Amino acid sequence: MIMEKHDGFMKALKCRECGREYPLAATHVCEFDFGPLEVAYDYDRIKKSLTRAAIESRPQTMWRYRELLPIAGAPTVGCQVGFTPLVKADRLAKRLGIRELWVKNDAVNYPTLSFKDRVVSVALSRSKELGFKTVACASTGNLANSVAANAAAAGLKSFVFIPSDLEQGKVINSLVYGANVISIKGHYDEVNRLCAEIAGKFGWAFVNVNMRPYYAEGSKSMGFEILEQLGWRIPQHTVVPMASGSLLTKIHKSYQEFVKIGLVRDAKYHVHGAQPTGCNPISAAQKAGLDFFKPVKPNTIAKSLAIGTPADGFYALKVMKETGASAEDVTDDEVREGIRLLAECEGIFAETAGGVTVGVAKKLIASGRIPANDSVVLCVTGNGLKTLDAVAGHVGRTRDIKPSLREFEALINSEAELAAAI
Amino acid sequence: MSVKVRIPTPLRKLTNNEELVEVSANTIGEVFTELQTLYPGIQERLLDEKGEVRRFVNVYVNEEDIRFLQNQQTPLKAGDEISIIPAIAGG
Asked: Which residue of A180, A218, A310, A374 could cross-link A118, Cys pair, CB 3.0 to 4.6 Å?
């Protein structure tokens, strides 16, 4: 890989609202209008370096698309992250009534079983380049797990801030790595507000605050992988869960970038957004035909999506409008049903956000917004083992017997369902 | 009515690096006007051409988003704490 100058393939940070440019530092907001800053790249140079042949010759991690990820040198944190399976989900396709269905399975992403390992490996690699020793985040859980684990492996100190009502699995999954876990009595939006204030006071690399322009770009790797794993083509439909809305905008950006540098042929595609009904500011706005959202107070079992003031909500709405896509939301019961459907059809146990994605896909297919003859990719972003509380008591039951053949036979004879399984 | 306003990092160049400033105001709208008097240029950073709070600016009174209150008409009482915070990404 040719590294001609210190900034790699990055040119500057650029305000998404007004276009003002800033140096490639740990900063995230335009001083003029508070618009989010985004990394601008030198696509002409990237096009020469990032060919299909070059990509295919590299290790199967997210870093095979290195030129389109915002670090200056080689990655130093999370070098094994990504290239998760894209599963052809024929049994689920049949159940949902769609011709071609794929599941991009980040429930098995390395090392902490969610898509957040993608953004964190970028954010921490960049943090090291910028000389930080302490990293931090505000998190609904998955990000906390990933920052804690990747910081431990990289020898960085970490602070993670979480809402106090988080699932136990996600709390333990942060503590075990030795992270400083600060639990805030409030919902995520309150954690976020506090972290914005803390970030202004402490000189840390806050992955989703001052490191956000780099951090957010890591999500693109999920889209790049989908395109490569589909045989270098764009799926007609992609269904993406929305919390802040960032992932949806970055999947769209990844498709556009691959078109721009000639890695895939341009084609019409739709990027649909999925939210839980108990926290649906973006989908409610989309369904009402608005280009702005109204903040909500979250109340949902899909805690990883419980962001009532979604920072990228405007851009997510814009992407859905531009790609002719829809948003939809599903109730807690539909979330659990979605989790079960995916598990029973494909053997994939997703966390609640995955249940949201499956539930919304089901609705979009049933209503014809995703036509039955099309192809669709579902983005599953986290692992069900982390949100056991949400499904406990809703996924069947064990039959308890003594270690006796007679008892087992009696049980089989007493239940038609078990008898049918023989 | 004397209230405290927390100034976010991106705006501190305008407030001579002051993090916390006191202004006298009865509503959030008046806070913006007062800030503008004290620190010329600050208002256009926070409000758009139509006078609406810019879409990436979140304003809180004692930790509550003003969009859950009465936006710029939100009444204030002495000692209230106002935070101005850029929208942040998810996690």
From this structure: A218
Backbone torsion region of residue A134, taken as left when φ is above 0, otherwise alpha when ψ lies between -120 and 50, otherwise beta: beta
Look at A292 and B63 and tell me if their CB atoms are within 8 Å. Answer: no
Of A32, A297, A309, the CB nearest to B87: A309
Say which CATH class A86-112+219-391 falls into. alpha beta
Distances (CA, A) of A237 to A202, A240, A364, A374: 42, 10, 11, 8
Same topology, domains A10-80+116-215 and A86-112+219-391? Answer is yes
A138 CB neighbours in chain B (<8 A) are 88, 91
**Domain boundaries in chain A?**
10-80+116-215, 86-112+219-391
* Contact assignment for B10 to A189 by CB distance below 8 Å: no
Domains of chain B: 2-86 (3.10.20.30)
Using CB atoms, pick whichever of B60, B68, B87 lies closest to residue A311.
B87
d(CA A77, CA A61): 12
Asked if residues A255 and A65 have their Cβ atoms less than 8 Å apart, the reply is no
Closest residue in B to A314 (Cα–Cα): B55
Q: How many CB pairs under 8 A join A and B?
A: 102
A35 CA: distance to closest CA in chain B (Å): 6
| Beta strand residue intervals within B1-91, DSSP E | 2-6, 20-24, 57-61, 64-65, 81-86
Distance from C-alpha of A361 to C-alpha of A166, rounded to nearest angstrom: 26
Query: Shortest Cα distance from A196 to chain B (angstroms)?
Result: 7
Sheet containing A37-41: which strands, arranged edge to edge?
Answer: A21-22, A10-15, A37-41
ipTM: 0.85
User: To the nearest whole angstrom, how far is the Cα of B80 from the nearest Cα of chain A?
Assistant: 17
| Mutation for B interface: A22, A32, A34, A181, most B CBs within 10 A | A34
- pLDDT tens digits in sequence order for chain A, 422 residues long: 444 457 999 999 999 999 999 999 999 999 888 899 999 999 999 999 999 999 999 999 999 999 999 999 999 999 999 999 999 999 999 999 999 999 999 999 999 999 999 999 999 999 999 999 999 999 999 999 999 999 999 999 999 999 998 888 899 999 999 999 999 999 888 898 899 889 888 999 999 999 999 999 999 999 999 999 999 999 999 999 999 999 999 999 999 999 999 999 999 999 999 999 999 999 999 999 998 999 999 999 999 999 999 999 999 999 999 999 999 999 999 999 999 999 999 999 999 999 999 999 999 999 999 999 999 999 999 999 999 999 999 988 899 999 999 999 999 999 888 888 88
**Domain A10-80+116-215 sits in CATH 3.40.50.2300:** no
